[in-house]
Structures
1.
Amino acid sequence: MAETQAGPERREDRNGRRAAVDRRSGMDRRRGPGRRRGEVRRAAEEGEISGELLEFIMAIDEYKRINERPFPTWSEVFEIVQYLGYRRVAEQAAHINTASGSEVLDSADAAMAD
């Protein structure tokens, strides 16, 4: 048979418990236990996202939250961009057209015709 311990039970002995050291940073500590940072939040905290990009992402998230829309349309995204103050000030750059523009489509059409 097992012998009983004299004095208070071990379960009730709170003085023998080691003090835990919280090694989390300030942002992790505020988030609470078991909550992970989102990819955007992590990148922003680590300085991988510029201020303008973070402002844009936060504006999109706020729009989605307020309007209860998980996926805003392109028209709604355009409204958000205008709300942030962006206006066209120059002509379209050449690199935008070559990545997905008519040059790529023309060469694909020519290859299919052969």
2.
Amino acid sequence: MKLHTVAILLSTSVASSAWAASFDCSEAQSRVEKSICSTPALNQLDARMGYAWKKLLAAEGSNKQRYIKQQREWLKERNQECSSGDKHCMEVSYHEQIRKLERQLAIAIIQQRKSCNGISENPHLSSAINENGGWSTYVDSDTLILDPLDDQHIAFSLSVSGENTHMCNLTGIASKKSGHYAWTTTHFAYDSGEAQRCTLRFHSWEHGYQTISIPQNKDNITAMNCHTYYCGMRAAIPEGDVFIPVSRLKGDDSYCKESREIVDEL
């Protein structure tokens, strides 16, 4: 069985570094490697990380050595902290690294765009405390950027403006599911170590309109997790609200330029 684990190999005969995208489980030696090979959940996480790693190197060729160093440091840390092969330790380490790599990859893909295609906004009224201590109401917009990565993945960035300038910010790689794209990540509570999952679903409609949904579960825990890790107190992910392509909101170049500035600030 092949496993998509990234391994940084330092050659003693050449000056350059190389990396391998998989290893043969029949040759697994360390407890970490054996744990990956024997645990389907870790196998899947390793494959997801390997995908993001390879795509990031391809997208950021000029920064290749930087990312090789970054990945080597993570591998060293993973092997030290999870040397016993503990599943929970490995899951925490993998989820953290996947979020990091996927965010870097999404930003790289989005910032390479040459147009405003794939940028949509959700205009809405918002309010903030003014200089007199009262509340002022104004028109604000949430921004959603979607960029194709391949036939099974898209890069996304969601910026939500809530009350009193509180924000939600999420950036990553979503995978194609039945009729939509979905992004899922798992955080772990500091005190109990409990797994806390956040999932977003992106739905495309006619004329480029987009909506976002969060899978419902008992006590709406998934939505609460997304809010806890990615939103300020007075901001919330706009489930069901329609994101309109910027070209339909205002067709001139100035509106596109404003959206481009959001991309450049990622």
